[in-house]
Design goal:
alpha+beta, 5-stranded antiparallel sheet, globular, Yope Regulator, Chain: A
Length: about 110
Protein backbone atom coordinates (compact mmCIF):
# COMPACT_ATOMS: atom_id res chain seq x y z
CA UNK A 1 0.00 0.00 0.00
CA UNK A 2 1.37 3.39 -0.95
CA UNK A 3 1.46 6.15 1.64
CA UNK A 4 -0.81 9.15 1.66
CA UNK A 5 2.28 11.26 1.11
CA UNK A 6 2.95 9.36 -2.13
CA UNK A 7 -0.64 9.89 -3.20
CA UNK A 8 -0.32 13.62 -2.50
CA UNK A 9 2.87 13.72 -4.57
CA UNK A 10 1.09 11.80 -7.35
CA UNK A 11 -1.74 14.35 -7.30
CA UNK A 12 0.82 17.16 -7.59
CA UNK A 13 2.66 15.36 -10.40
CA UNK A 14 -0.63 14.87 -12.26
CA UNK A 15 -1.41 18.57 -11.84
CA UNK A 16 2.04 19.50 -13.15
CA UNK A 17 1.73 17.22 -16.19
CA UNK A 18 -1.83 18.41 -16.93
CA UNK A 19 -0.68 22.04 -16.78
CA UNK A 20 1.07 21.61 -20.14
CA UNK A 21 -1.71 20.00 -22.12
CA UNK A 22 0.80 18.55 -24.63
CA UNK A 23 1.28 15.16 -23.01
CA UNK A 24 -0.23 12.94 -20.36
CA UNK A 25 0.93 10.97 -17.38
CA UNK A 26 1.40 7.27 -18.08
CA UNK A 27 1.78 4.27 -15.81
CA UNK A 28 -0.04 3.16 -12.71
CA UNK A 29 2.65 2.29 -10.17
CA UNK A 30 5.60 3.78 -12.03
CA UNK A 31 4.24 7.11 -13.22
CA UNK A 32 6.02 8.91 -16.04
CA UNK A 33 5.73 11.03 -19.16
CA UNK A 34 7.23 10.11 -22.50
CA UNK A 35 7.42 11.39 -26.05
CA UNK A 36 9.32 10.35 -29.16
CA UNK A 37 10.12 7.02 -27.48
CA UNK A 38 11.86 8.59 -24.45
CA UNK A 39 10.75 9.16 -20.87
CA UNK A 40 11.29 12.74 -19.76
CA UNK A 41 9.83 12.82 -16.27
CA UNK A 42 8.85 10.35 -13.61
CA UNK A 43 7.61 9.93 -10.07
CA UNK A 44 9.62 7.36 -8.13
CA UNK A 45 8.37 5.04 -5.37
CA UNK A 46 9.52 7.59 -2.76
CA UNK A 47 7.25 10.24 -4.27
CA UNK A 48 10.11 12.24 -5.75
CA UNK A 49 9.80 13.90 -9.15
CA UNK A 50 12.63 13.67 -11.66
CA UNK A 51 12.82 15.61 -14.92
CA UNK A 52 15.21 14.80 -17.76
CA UNK A 53 17.10 17.81 -19.12
CA UNK A 54 19.93 18.33 -21.58
CA UNK A 55 23.27 17.93 -19.75
CA UNK A 56 24.14 21.64 -19.52
CA UNK A 57 20.61 22.63 -18.51
CA UNK A 58 20.56 19.89 -15.87
CA UNK A 59 23.85 21.06 -14.34
CA UNK A 60 22.59 24.64 -14.30
CA UNK A 61 19.26 23.60 -12.73
CA UNK A 62 21.00 21.59 -10.00
CA UNK A 63 23.31 24.49 -9.16
CA UNK A 64 20.56 27.14 -9.18
CA UNK A 65 18.15 25.08 -7.07
CA UNK A 66 20.61 23.24 -4.80
CA UNK A 67 19.48 19.81 -5.89
CA UNK A 68 21.03 16.54 -7.09
CA UNK A 69 20.70 13.98 -9.84
CA UNK A 70 17.45 11.98 -9.62
CA UNK A 71 17.48 8.45 -8.26
CA UNK A 72 14.86 5.77 -8.86
CA UNK A 73 14.94 2.17 -7.61
CA UNK A 74 18.41 2.77 -6.17
CA UNK A 75 19.98 3.95 -9.42
CA UNK A 76 20.73 7.40 -10.75
CA UNK A 77 18.71 8.18 -13.86
CA UNK A 78 20.95 9.60 -16.57
CA UNK A 79 20.27 13.29 -17.29
CA UNK A 80 17.46 13.51 -14.70
CA UNK A 81 17.40 16.12 -11.94
CA UNK A 82 15.60 15.77 -8.63
CA UNK A 83 12.87 18.36 -8.16
CA UNK A 84 13.20 19.57 -4.56
CA UNK A 85 10.03 19.99 -2.50
CA UNK A 86 10.94 23.66 -2.09
CA UNK A 87 10.04 24.24 -5.76
CA UNK A 88 6.57 22.71 -5.58
CA UNK A 89 5.04 26.14 -4.97
CA UNK A 90 6.46 27.41 -8.27
CA UNK A 91 4.19 25.69 -10.79
CA UNK A 92 5.31 28.04 -13.58
CA UNK A 93 9.00 27.21 -13.13
CA UNK A 94 8.32 23.49 -12.99
CA UNK A 95 5.97 23.66 -15.95
CA UNK A 96 8.67 25.47 -17.96
CA UNK A 97 11.23 22.87 -16.85
CA UNK A 98 8.93 20.03 -17.91
CA UNK A 99 8.38 21.77 -21.27
CA UNK A 100 12.16 22.06 -21.70
CA UNK A 101 12.43 18.31 -21.01
CA UNK A 102 9.70 17.59 -23.57
CA UNK A 103 11.42 19.75 -26.20
CA UNK A 104 14.72 17.98 -25.45
CA UNK A 105 13.37 14.46 -26.10
CA UNK A 106 11.51 15.69 -29.18
CA UNK A 107 14.87 16.88 -30.56
CA UNK A 108 16.38 13.38 -30.24
CA UNK A 109 16.31 10.71 -32.93
CA UNK A 110 12.99 8.85 -32.45
CA UNK A 111 13.20 5.41 -30.84
Amino acid sequence: MMSKNWEEKLAYYDKLVAHSGKFERKGKNMCYTSANGYMFSMLNKDGEIGIRLPKDAGKKFMKEHSTTPFKSHGAFMRDYVLIPDSLYDDMELLSETLEEAYQHVMSLEPK
